[in-house]
Amino acid sequence: MDAITHMFVGASVAQLPQQVKQSQSRVSLGWKSRALIGALSAIFPDIDYLLFFWNPLEFVAYWHRAETHSLLLAPLWAWILSKLLIRFYGWHHPPILLFQICLVGILSHTLIDSLTAFGTQWFAPLSDYRVNWDLLFVVDVYFTLMALITLILIVVLRNKTYRVYSFILPLCYLLLVLLFKQQAYLQLPSPEKKEGKSSSSRVLIPQPFSPLYWHVIEPTEQGINQAYLKLANDVIAVNVSELLGVDVYQNSYYLPPQLRWHMQSLKPKDIAMQRDVNLVWQHKKFSAFRDFAEYPVFYKYQKTSTKVCVWFSDLRYHWPNIIPSFRFGMCREKEHSWQLYRLKYFSDEQVKLIN
């Protein structure tokens, strides 16, 4: 999820740890201090983004949302963060209280990130299995608003029981999204038989701007069937997408009876491209992308008089009229060997990676 949402949730859960006694007196810590520490703790796990600049492909494939997001290592990160706060910010309250606040903030980050399609490695470094519930897009304005209202209620309400009840609001929103998703599954029609027999269950991926929009992905023997579904029109989503410059966004989604299926695959239809595409996909240097992508598809083939490039992407990160996020490939200049490249976010600018 985005940093703002993490900070709101972290600031909220930071109000929960009980005050501790010290020298026969109860030490009080104001809500502002708790909110600040909780917000800082809640964004701490994303410190792994520093590794992105070392190797973006290895980062998304293996390092992001791994050890820094692990439930097993959360106490260690909370201890380190609390020690840093004591060392550099002159913390004068009981260390155990600071540790508890840091811990709940870090745990909130891990749990919220698990709601997205990317998922988190809860049990790293013992396991690289990613928990992903595919309920929220990485930026969900509705959920962020629920988190903000929850924080306000916790600050305003003095009764401890009522404070805990404040968390029902974002939980109810998640339940509503889950109901939307189940309803989408129930209303989902079958793709045409000519597209190939389904080899696994369908997957619904949350989309930007609205919980009413879903990306339907269905692997088949011939490739991957995909469609963009909407349960209903969302006026707010239309306004937000237009504000961000994403034109005709809603028109790319269809109600279940009018759903339009499209076939995607790892191989282009042009036979002349297939040799290079196969070489890149099977190349040993491209193994990290093969490990990363759950629904890999051929994205683009570029050829000039001096250079050939083959690009792939993951359907989890495809949206109508928006450039996909994770596009990696390999390029070769004349007689040189294939080299790893990526396309920058929201552009087609090529960036050479460490090979």
Commentary on this structure:
This protein has helices spanning 3-13, 31-43, 56-63, 74-89, 95-113, 141-156, 160-165, 168-187, 235-243, 271-281, 287-292; strands spanning 21-22, 25-26, 203-207, 210-219, 224-230, 262-264, 296-303, 307-314, 327-333, 339-343, 350-352. The radius of gyration is 23 Å and the shape is globular. The protein is of the alpha+beta class and 355 residues long. The protein folds into three domains: 3-176, no CATH class; 188-264, no CATH class; 271-352, no CATH class. It is built from eleven helices and eleven strands. The chain is 38% helix and 17% strand. α2 (31-43) packs across α5 and α4 crosses α5. The chain starts with a helix and ends with a strand. β4 (210-219) and β5 (224-230) form a beta hairpin. Strands 7-8-9-10-11 form a five-stranded antiparallel beta sheet, covered by helices on one side.
Helix-strand topology string? HEEHHHHHHHEEEHEHHEEEEE
Q: What general outline do the C-alpha atoms trace?
A: globular
Low-confidence stretches: none
Based on secondary structure, the structural category is: alpha+beta
Radius of gyration: 23 Å
> How can the largest sheet be summarized?
5 strands, antiparallel
Keywords: Membrane, Transmembrane, Transmembrane helix
InterPro entries: Transcription_regulator, YdjM-like
Transmembrane segments: 35-54, 66-86, 98-123, 135-157, 164-180
Protein name: Membrane-bound metal-dependent hydrolase
